[in-house]
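Hi Prof. W.,

I finally got the LysR family transcriptional regulator prediction working! I wasn't sure whether to trim anything, so I left the full sequence exactly as given:
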Amino acid sequence: MNLLMRHTLPLLELDILKTFVAIAETGNFTTAAETVHRTPSAVSMQIKKLEELLGCSLFRRDARSVVLTHHGEVLLSYARRLIALSNEAVSRFMMPEMNGVVRLGAPDDVGELILPEVLKRFAESYPSIAVNVSIENSSSLRRAVAERRLDLAIFNATDGTVPVPGEILLKEQLVWAGKSCGNAHLKTPLPVSVWEEGCIWRAKALEELSRSGRDFRVAYFCAHHMGQRAAIRADLAVAPLARFLIGDDMVALGEKDGLPDLGHYHIGLVVNDEAEAPAQAVADYIRTVFARMERRPMDMLQVAC
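And this is what came out:
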């Protein structure tokens, strides 16, 4: 019996594994500490305890970043599976009725840059709910909810309008995006990259250009925001983009550059009036995420879930 006890392997603590995963995903102890609601010193102590338990280093640290070691990469796979299995087991008993498929719609920008992280976090809390995502323009999404083809949808709306039905989640600035050190905005007629009909950014941009008397041409047409970014990076055109989409190789242009102000727009949410509990759970989670965004400096690419 004593021999058996001496060879019993220690157990990994889920709270410490969650901290480990948070550091691996953010690459920063301070940001990870905010994610797991602990102090940076407490997070450091947890990792020290985990490394002592396993007898190896899990991170390589320098003044600017934290990177997983080979052992850390191996543990990350196990940690994610253990956390997911724990969530699944707990939800089986605490939320047995919360299961099913939810049909969620979102515009291209939200669907690519915000939703993946949001849904990843949601799945950790509700592993028995499957979320199927459709990417469309905002008018099509709202129509799909009204026709019961979607349970809920995130959409973009022009500033000053209150969507009915629907609710406002966040107000964000709309700007002209150009290549950093580029000259597309200096050309006449102005080369513009836009989406398909029904996109509120397109409508707002073309309306303001016409009102200002600036001569323009549609030089690049694409229904996806990545296509718009490609046109900007090649200095083929300028495009109306949400402020949070401006990358390091881009610059926000405005009236000082001879372009009209585009103001703000709203990100909204509409929920099918017959939506069941799983869809309502998704809606509540989305509301919580966007409420946190509104209280913090705008950095949608690092969603505070």
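The chain is about 45% helix and 20% strand. Does that look reasonable to you?

Thanks,
D.
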